[in-house]
Every structure is written in C-alpha cells, then in structure tokens.
C-alpha cells in the first residue's frame, strides 16, 4: 500500500494553533480591567476626625478633600471654591448614581465644609457624606 501522507504533512497536522485561545484570553483580560472598580483618591492625605458611627459608602464617585489650610482638592487638582459646583456637576453627569464624599481635615474650617456642601446641593447632588475614621 502506498503512503498517503509524508512525514512533514503529519507533523503539520499535529500542531495546534493557539492563536484563537490567546485572543479570547486577551479579550477577557481587557474586560476585567475595564470593569474593575478602582479606588479613587481626592488627591491629598487628610487627617479625618474619628467617629463611632462610621458607615462604608459603596457608590461614592465624587471625592472632595479639604486640606488643613482650607484648600479644596478634586481628582488630584486644587480647585477654587467657585469651581466646585461645576466640577461636581461634571462628575455627577458621568455617574448619576454616585454620591459626594467630603474628606475634611481636622484642621479645616466649618465654613469651607459648608461651602462645599452648598455647592454640591446647588449641583443637584443631595447624597452627601463626610468621611471619618473609625474610633
């Protein structure tokens, strides 16, 4: 009987093409990176006051930090008090389900905190929380 396949043809048939599998793995990796929740930081370290009734907020997407010298920080940028409302409106448009969390330093004044809260309400965001540390 005559041999139908040569040795080189048999070796080619034995190779498995893993390119489609690599494509699927790469697409899954992209999916997990895009859907992962990343912890947002307001931009500065704040010494938050302690509170016994601290609760964890899950859907907070607008973090505002107030430094000890009353500087306001959003997304790592120092913001003037007059621009806080516009920034909150922009961030709230990106995620309408999110809330505002204000990280006010112990040394900041209540006046700055109230101005930030008023700017949030003026931007139609009424779900406002103040970040604290557990005591």
From TrEMBL:
Keywords: Cell membrane, Membrane, Protein transport, Transmembrane, Transmembrane helix, Transport
Bilayer-spanning residue ranges: 20-39
Organism: Marinicella litoralis
Record has Protein transport as a keyword: yes
Cell compartments where the protein resides: Cell membrane
Recorded coiled-coil stretches: none
Principal place of residence: membrane
One MF term in the entry's GO annotations: transmembrane transporter activity
GO biological process: protein transport
Family indicated by similarity: Belongs to the ExbD/TolR family.
Record's bilayer topology term: Single-pass membrane protein; Single-pass type II membrane protein
Pfam families listed in its UniProt record: ExbD (PF02472)
Top-rank taxon: Bacteria
Entry protein name: Outer membrane transport energization protein ExbD
GO CC annotation, single: plasma membrane
């Amino acid at each position: 009987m005559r041999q139908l396949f040569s040795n080189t043809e048999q070796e080619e048939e034995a190779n498995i093409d893993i390119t489609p599998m690599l494509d699927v793995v790469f697409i899954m990796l992209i999916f997990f990176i895009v859907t992962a929740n990343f912890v947002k930081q307001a931009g500065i370290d704040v010494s938050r006051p302690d509170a016994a009734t601290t609760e964890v907020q899950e859907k907070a997407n607008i973090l505002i930090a107030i430094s000890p010298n009353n500087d306001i920080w959003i997304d790592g940028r120092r913001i003037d008090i007059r621009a806080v409302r516009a920034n909150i409106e922009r961030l709230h448009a990106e995620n309408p389900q999110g809330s505002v969390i204000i990280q006010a330093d112990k040394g900041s004044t209540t006046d700055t905190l109230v101005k930030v809260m008023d700017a949030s309400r003026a931007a139609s965001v009424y779900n406002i929380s103040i970040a604290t540390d557990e005591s």
